[in-house]
Automatic annotation (TrEMBL), chain A:
The keyword Transmembrane applies. One of its GO terms (molecular function) is copper ion binding. The chain crosses the membrane at residues 12-30. Belongs to the COX11/CtaG family. It comes from Rheinheimera pacifica. This is Cytochrome c oxidase assembly protein CtaG. Pfam families: CtaG_Cox11. InterPro entries: CtaG/Cox11_dom_sf (IPR023471), Cyt_c_oxidase_assmbl_CtaG (IPR007533). It is a single-pass type II membrane protein.
From TrEMBL, chain B:
The lineage of its organism: Bacteria, Pseudomonadati, Pseudomonadota, Gammaproteobacteria, Chromatiales. GO terms for cellular component: plasma membrane; respiratory chain complex IV. This is Cytochrome c oxidase subunit 1. The chain crosses the membrane at residues 36-56, 76-97, 118-138, 158-186, 198-225, 245-269, 281-303, 315-338, 350-374, 386-411, 423-444, 464-487. It is an enzyme of class 7 (translocase). Its main location: membrane. Residues 23-527 form the Cytochrome oxidase subunit I profile domain. GO terms for molecular function: cytochrome-c oxidase activity; heme binding; metal ion binding. InterPro entries: Cyt_c_oxase-like_su1_dom (IPR023616), Cyt_c_oxase-like_su1_sf (IPR036927), Cyt_C_Oxase_1 (IPR000883), Cyt_c_Oxase_su1_BS (IPR023615), Cyt_c_oxase_su1_dom (IPR033944), Cyt_c_oxidase_su1_bac (IPR014241). SUPFAM superfamilies: Cytochrome c oxidase subunit I-like. Cytochrome c oxidase is the component of the respiratory chain that catalyzes the reduction of oxygen to water. Subunits 1-3 form the functional core of the enzyme complex. CO I is the catalytic subunit of the enzyme. Electrons originating in cytochrome c are transferred via the copper A center of subunit 2 and heme A of subunit 1 to the bimetallic center formed by heme A3 and copper B. It catalyses: 4 Fe(II)-[cytochrome c] + O2 + 8 H(+)(in) = 4 Fe(III)-[cytochrome c] + 2 H2O + 4 H(+)(out).
Length: 186, 527
């Protein structure tokens, strides 16, 4: 190619390569954006601190619990109660029942979602089975606890928060490494 | 020794290899332009045949001819072929033919790369089309290949789909780099930025859009590939990914992509209207700025394809207002075309007819786009035939009509013969009537709730769909007239003058018709 075309061609090719990288950079950027804004109903993947905020007894918020195993997940998976009424700031424990009806050990990973999405920032989990992968031998069952509170700063237009868990079978990807597995809860 | 060298150079200068080798080895922008255009025409008919299958199945309610899975493959591959195989290569072909002649350059800046960017394209589409014959069939997840349809629920043809999109993307990026380098480095002395023809301007901006977004498309198909075959979880919630992320990345590419398919059309219409109105283009500078602002805004509107994913109000409002803002520069353009014609000495040859139809029908498509931009209304229109009507008005009566107009406009320059005006007028009127029979009623069935991409429909849509299908068959048949015109014109006809059209201005009209194999080896002087 003529010498005078080289610098511009090179710059344009580098731009194209950089945009290829940018496509992949959108993946973490998207997560960061969702974490910061709470859009998309993503809740924090790590535990909130337990120092109880002021309890706002003048206000009641209804929490609805939805739990369903993914199509390929054979576990029975359901919350102990479908809904509960709480005061913002109060710490509550909610147990989820998991039962493995098959004859083999299965590892599950629950992925949470909060609706309406804007309320996700105000729903704090102190402890959750969704932070790590859960393993359950065949024929066994267990109670999986979730400890949470609703932030008293929850904007007043929200009177109901729905917490939904989808449980996935991640046995094939399971390494037994808890440090790695807690990453998966993001 | 020196004699041999001279001989060798002489050969390269005037001769071209004969037969297939001429086309395989060519680095001549006119040859490559011709190949792109012929390739696009073939793809237009292959993609069109798939549309005929779709319309045949939808002629009556119930399942008549094809299996639902095959129907889905038809909608998917029809979309992919028309976008990446017909419209984009046709514009690249026009760019190859016309840009060097319009700016007074001897050829494209990177002729060998030009050969490559064309010749990998047939293989991309061969791979895509062959995947239709695999067990389980070709891609059937829609041309937008949303995850998890393309990851969890797709067949093994997905790998072929991904590779073919990679090749198309590389071809487009190389073509775009070539266009930019040509325009930056090879303009004739005196051809300043604001003297460039608008077709060159719109293509320059399109080429930048291509370089910005085609790599993002390559990235997202790569993620689909690794999610499906290599255990990554970009879009899989079980592994911490998010299927909605797919839509964000895809439409970050997808929205600029629709401007890639329409900006060169604006350039074509801005060339044709002044010629047949015999007046200079009204508002040249505002056209350049309008095109640039459309290109910039195209990066800020992608989520208007995703209003129903459950976006917060702030996001929906942002994307809604940005989308509506695009109507302003687009309105400037339509105003300028109309003002160019105002009190012009107009004649109505075929290129002008298609350009006029473009202005009216593209504006209708723009208006339905504005309706779709209104977030609450979009919840009703989303994924219905209203959307199908919208994007076919902007892509068929928009992009495709502009390409046909360009073909008629420059055909005498390419072949040296005038096309058959009478046959061309038949082509125009048959296309105009049938295309509106085909797409206009889709607005009504869409508003009434008929979903897109479904092989069957509720009984109350039966009459409309029969009518739409008849329009579809007629539109398909009308394009055979186009082929007849092209063949007839290539073979012979009334000799064309260098200027061809009485009102035509620009460097491409100063070289003889047909344009010699090499033009502007010494740069022309621009007054």
């Amino acid at each position: 190619m003529a010498l005078k075309h080289k610098p511009l061609t090179f710059k344009l090719a580098v731009t194209a390569l950089a945009m290829f990288g940018f496509g992949f950079a959108l993946v973490p950027l998207y997560d960061v954006f969702c974490d910061l804004t709470g859009l998309n109903g993503k809740t924090a993947a790590t535990a909130a601190s337990a120092d109880a905020a002021l309890i706002d007894t003048s206000r009641e918020v209804v929490i609805e619990f939805i739990a369903r195993p993914n199509k390929e997940m054979p576990w029975v998976f359901k919350p102990e109660v479908r809904r509960m009424t709480v005061h913002p700031g109060e710490i509550h424990i909610m147990n989820y029942l998991a039962e493995n009806p098959t004859g083999r050990m299965i590892v599950g990973q629950a992925v949470p979602s909060v609706s309406p999405g804007q309320a996700a920032l105000y729903f704090h989990k102190i402890e959750c089975f969704c932070f790590t992968q859960q393993q359950l031998a065949g024929g066994k069952n267990m109670l999986m606890p979730l400890q949470f509170y609703v932030d008293p700063a929850l904007p007043s237009q929200f009177s109901t928060i729905t917490l939904s868990y989808t449980l996935y079978d991640v046995t094939s990807a399971w390494t037994g490494d808890t440090a790695a597995s807690s990453q998966l809860g993001e | 020794m020196s004699a041999v060298v001279t001989d060798h150079e002489h050969e390269h200068h005037d001769h071209k290899p004969s037969g297939i080798k001429r086309w395989l080895y060519t680095t001549n922008h006119k040859d490559i332009g011709t190949m792109y255009l012929v390739f696009a025409l073939i793809m237009f008919f292959i993609g069109g045949a798939m549309a005929m299958v779709i319309r045949a199945e939808l002629f009556q309610p119930g399942m008549q001819f094809v299996e639902p899975n095959f129907f889905n493959q038809m909608t998917t591959v029809h979309g992919l072929i028309m976008v990446f195989g017909a419209v984009m290569p046709a514009f690249t072909g026009l760019a190859n033919w016309m840009i060097p002649m319009m700016i007074g350059a001897p050829d494209m800046a990177l002729p060998r790369m030009n050969n490559w960017s064309f010749w990998i394209l047939p293989f991309a589409f061969l791979i895509l089309l062959m995947s239709l014959f695999m067990p389980g069939g070709g891609p059937s997840f829609g041309w937008t290949f949303y995850a998890p349809l393309s990851t969890t629920y797709s067949g093994d043809s997905t790998a072929l789909f991904v590779f073919s999109v990679h090749i198309m993307g590389i071809s487009s990026i190389m073509g775009a780099i070539n266009v930019i380098v040509t325009i930056f480095n090879l303009r004739a002395p005196g051809m300043t930025w604001m003297k460039m023809p608008l077709f060159v301007w719109t293509w320059l901006i399109t080429a930048f859009l291509l370089i910005m977004v085609m790599p993002v498309l390559a990235g997202v198909v790569t993620m689909v590939l690794t999610d499906k075959y290599f255990g990554t979880s970009f879009f899989d919630a079980a592994g911490g990914g998010d299927p909605v992320l797919f839509q964000h990345i895809f439409w970050f590419f997808g929205h600029p992509e629709v401007y890639i398919m329409i900006l060169p059309a604006f350039g074509i219409v801005s060339s044709i209207v002044p010629t047949f109105a015999r007046k200079p283009l009204f508002g040249y500078a505002s056209m350049v700025y309008a095109t640039s602002s459309i290109a910039l805004l195209s990066f800020l509107v992608w989520a208007h394809h995703m209003f129903t994913t459950g976006m917060p109000v702030a996001g929906a409002l942002f994307f809604m207002y940005c989308t509506m803002l695009i109507a302003v520069p687009t309105g400037v353009k339509v105003f300028n075309w109309v003002a160019t014609m105002w009190r012009g000495a107009m004649t109505f040859e075929v290129p002008m007819m298609f350009a006029l139809a473009f202005i009216v029908l593209f504006t209708i498509g723009g208006f339905s786009g504005l309706m779709l931009a209104i977030t609450p209304a979009d919840f009703q229109y989303h994924d219905t035939y209203f959307v199908v009507a919208h994007f076919h008005y902007v892509l068929v009566t928009g992009a495709v009509f502009s390409i046909i107009a360009a073909a008629y406009y420059w055909l005498p320059k390419w072949t040296g013969h005038m096309y058959d005006e009478k046959l061309g007028q038949w082509h125009f009127w048959c296309s105009l009537i049938s295309v509106n029979m085909l797409f206009f009623p889709m607005h009504f069935v869409g508003l009434a709730g008929m979903p897109r991409r479904i092989p069957d429909y509720a009984l109350q849509f039966a009459d409309f769909n029969a009518f739409i299908s008849i329009g579809g068959f007629l539109f398909g048949a009308s394009q055979l007239i186009f082929v007849a015109v092209l063949v007839k014109c290539a073979r012979g006809g009334e000799k064309a003058t260098a200027q061809v059209w009485e009102g035509a201005e620009g460097l491409e009209w100063e070289v003889p018709s047909p344009a010699p194999y090499h033009t502007f080896e010494t740069p022309p002087v621009i007054k």
